[in-house]
Structure formats: structure tokens, C-alpha cells
Design a protein that fits this description.
single chain; mainly beta; 9-stranded antiparallel sheet; 9 strands; about 5% helix
Length: about 150
Amino acid sequence: MRGVWTILEHRVRDRRGRFCRPRLLSMETKDNLVTANGRGLILDILLVVQPTIAAVAIGSNAAAVQDSDAVLGAEISRWQITSMSRSGSVMTVRLFLGTTQANGFTYREAGIFNGYPSGGVILNRITHSDKVKTSSKTLTYLITLTLSSS
């Protein structure tokens, strides 16, 4: 199994603080590591031992991703997944953070968990470039997970 995360940062307020047409500020695509715990979670879900994935956690630690990761390096908040869909062997998970959500922090990492609002098992984790979240911006995490025979 492999996964890819796409992080979209949009400006949605003008310099005077008024809502404006969204403007893409940055788009970043990162491969992730499905951790040892995540691989175990997938098997547990197939065996109906664990509940399905439920949340995306975001944090501030930029330490390299390790196969043994069980939590984020410095989790700041955890959000219920906005939407999930599947096409063939590809699942897409989306987290959208609007102008009133998760403001005042610099985010550098994210991961999918089967626990909300806390706890659970981490499926995967990424680190990414600094995303400073303010009320003038939205932030979208798009995660694709691909099941393959290789």
C-alpha cells in the first residue's frame, strides 16, 4: 500500500479582511509512509477488530517520518475527515479546514488516525513545508491511498 498527500493553501480574504475569490497560494504533493502500525490497522479493519479511519491529525513537528511512528511528533489538533471516496483500488480522503478552523499555528506534519477526538492507531504520516494557518486562508489535505499487488 502506498499513499500520496496533496496540501492546498488558499487565500480567501483580501488585504482589508473581506472575503474574496479563493486564490491558490501553494500546492504540495508528498509521498507518505504507511507505518507498521498502519499496516496492522488495515488487517484489523479487514478482520473487524478496529474501527475504520476517522480523523486527520495535524501538528508542528518536522522530524522525519519513521516506520515505528505511533503518534505525530507534536499534534496540535485532530479533525473528522471531511469526505472519503473509492475508485477501484484507490481511496481518497479529504480534510478541509475553513477560515475559522485551526488558526494561529504553523503546521508541518499530518497523519490519518482511526480515533477521534483522540487516541486510535495511526495509519500514515507525512511532514511537509510550513503552512501558517490564518483566518485569511483555507487548507485542504487530499490523501490518496492505493492498494496494489506489488
